[in-house]
Hints:
With 375 residues, this protein is an alpha/beta fold. The chain has two domains: 6-175 and 320-372, Alpha-Beta Complex (Quinone Oxidoreductase, Chain A, domain 1); 188-314, NAD(P)-binding Rossmann-like Domain (Rossmann fold), CATH 3.40.50.720. It has helices at residues 47-52, 101-104, 112-121, 176-187, 203-214, 227-236, 249-256, 272-280, 304-309, 322-334, 353-362, and strands at residues 6-12, 20-25, 33-43, 61-62, 67-74, 88-91, 131-132, 138-141, 150-154, 158-160, 195-199, 219-224, 240-243, 262-267, 282-290, 313-314, 344-348, 368-372. Strands 3, 5, 6, 9, 10, 17 and 18 form a seven-stranded mixed beta sheet that branches. A six-stranded parallel beta sheet has the order 13-12-11-14-15-16, sandwiched between helices. Helix 4 (176-187) crosses helix 5 (203-214) and helix 4 packs across helix 10 (322-334). The chain is globular, with a radius of gyration of 20 Å. The mean pLDDT is 95.
Amino acid sequence: xxxxxxxxxxxxxxxxxxxxxxxxxxxxxxxxxxxxxxxxxxxxxxxxxxxxxxxxxxxxxxxxxxxxxxxxxxxxxxxxxxxxxxxxxxxxxxxxxxxxxxxxxxxxxxxxxxxxxxxxxxxxxxxxxxxxxxxxxxxxxxxxxxxxxxxxxxxxxxxxxxxxxxxxxxxxxxxxxxxxxxxxxxxxxxxxxxxxxxxxxxxxxxxxxxxxxxxxxxxxxxxxxxxxxxxxxxxxxxxxxxxxxxxxxxxxxxxxxxxxxxxxxxxxxxxxxxxxxxxxxxxxxxxxxxxxxxxxxxxxxxxxxxxxxxxxxxxxxxxxxxxxxxxxxxxxxxxxxxxxxxxxxxxxxxxxxxxxxxxxxxxxxxxxxxxxxxx
Length: 375
C-alpha cells in the first residue's frame, strides 16, 4: 500500500493550549509493530487530565488511545502471525510489552514497561517515540498517538475486526469497551443475579451497563446528573436511574434495593465525590470498583469502620488483559451481545477535535465521541 511521507496530526504543544493540527512525517513501525491508517479515534475523559496538565506528560505530544484502522505496514520480526496488511483492526490503549513479569503472568494491565516508558515518557519499548516534527524533533506518544492519520501500534495490542462491524465505531472497543469489560469481568467478577450501580454514565459507564446486562446482573442502577444520559442508560439496559442533581443517591438506591444497597458499585469518573457516592450505596459485603482516573494526585475518603465491619472491598480496575480480553470484546460485539453504534453519539473531524474535548469538559458529551479521519 502507498504510504504518504507526511500526515496530519493533532499535536499538544503545551498543557492548557488547544490541540494544533499539524503536518508531520508519517511514522514507520519497528520490530513487532504495525502501522495503521487510522479510521477513527475515540475521545476519552482521561485525555482531559493530560490536556490540562493535571497528569504530567511530556510535550509536544499526540494523544488518542483508542483507535480503529487498517494495517498498511508490518514491522520486522513480527511475532503475531495472525496479522496481515489490509486487515481492519482495533487498537487497545493498554499496550503490553509481552515480556515483563506481569505480562508473563497474563497481567497485561500491570505491564511495567508500559507505565514506565509510555505513560511517563511517551515512548515505545525501545525507549524512542515514532513521531517527530518536520525538523526531526521528537513528538511524544500517549499510547499509540491515535489522533493522527497514521499511528504505530505494538502488535500485542491490536485485534482484527470482522467486516460485520463498523470500521469506525469499533474504535471504542480498545478503551471504553475494554475498560468496562475489565471492570465487570476482572475487577468485580460479577456473578449472575447480582445488583449493580454505575456512577457516571459516559462512554465507559455506558459500556459497563451493557456488560453487566450481558453477564447477568439482576438490577442495574444508573446514576448521573444529566437526564438525557439517564434516558440513554435505560436504552442500554439500566433497570433504574437516579439523577444525582435532584435525588439523594443513598436514599434512592436503598429504596430501589429493599434497603440493602447494591452488590457492586462501579465508579467511572475519578472524582472524590463520585467515590463517596459509590461507597454510600454499597451493600454489606459489596465491591466498589473504581475505574475513572483522578486529576493528578487526588484522594478520596473511606470510612474505615464501615469498610471493616461491613466487609466491603475496593477493587481498582485499569483496563483489562489486552491480549485475551480485547479479542473477547470484539467477539462479543460481533455476536451482537454488546453494541457500539448506540454508544458513539457524536462524530468530529480532526479539525474539530478541540470542540469534542470541550464537550467532554462541560459534560455535554453523551456516550462516546469519536474523530472520523475521513471527514
